[in-house]
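We read letters as residues; the integers encode the fold. Take this protein.
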Amino acid sequence: MAAQAVTGCVEDLLPLVGLFAVAFVAATVLPAQSEAALLGLLILGKQSPVLLVIVATVGNVLGSVTNWLLGRLVEQYRHRRWFPVSEQALARATGWYRRWGRWSLLLSWAPIGGDALTVAAGVLREPFWSFLLLVTIAKAGRYIVLALIAMGLL
């Protein structure tokens, strides 16, 4: 009986851990499709859509926080091969960021340029709490809209 309970708990937890991991990686420049993972789990219907959106959002926001931290250290590591954003992408994102300010972080969900914006925010020393608030709004908004579409409510 106890073994079945543990197995059921693990079966419920593994998809959430996987979704978190994919969402985290997708917020960096590594290739990952958190939207596809979220949609797949929504279609399966085994977990609460609200829980899935929360897990995806937290993972994606924490990935963006990693980018922000890398941006804070950019001068030290910018020319390293593993640095997650090319010089060109960083220059473009920095230009956008300088033009539109912190509000450009509302585009951090975008598949092209969004990750670079989060690095640029770190480079330009955006305060952490305003960064976190705007990126969370952007990332959660994307996942909420996606979930509503998948459930036929939008």
The chain has one domain: 34-150. The mean pLDDT is 88. Residues 73 and 123 are 7 Å apart (CA to CA).
